[in-house]
Amino acid sequence: MNNKALKKLKIPGISGNHFDIETGEEYWVSGVKKNGQDRHQFGGGKIMIDRKSVPEYLKLVDFTILDENTYTLIDFAKTDKQRFNEIENEEISFKDTSLHASYFENNQRKLILNRDY
Fold this sequence. Notes:
Blueprint (H helix, E strand, L loop, with lengths): L5 E3 L9 E3 L5 E2 L19 E4 L3 H8 L9 E4 L6 H9 L9 H10 L9
């Protein structure tokens, strides 16, 4: 998850409610649940949680420890906010002007940019 900027989908899909503004790859970002059930109902694998967030998370869910079978501790690296700002504010030039392309523009405009790289 390092060096990614996730943006909320206007219309969440089955596999994600956020997407990476550079690749369009979808991610499921869960809110904290008091019962600790922070996983998408059809998801599998361990839940990733930032190591620095653990003390606050444990207070919110009223746990004393994290179950190592359920959670994986990760360390988020500092991101380049300026790069994400430039991506979000660059002019759009469409490869495809079909109805399908304009539909995705409403949700994931970065997927249809005509970039030179």
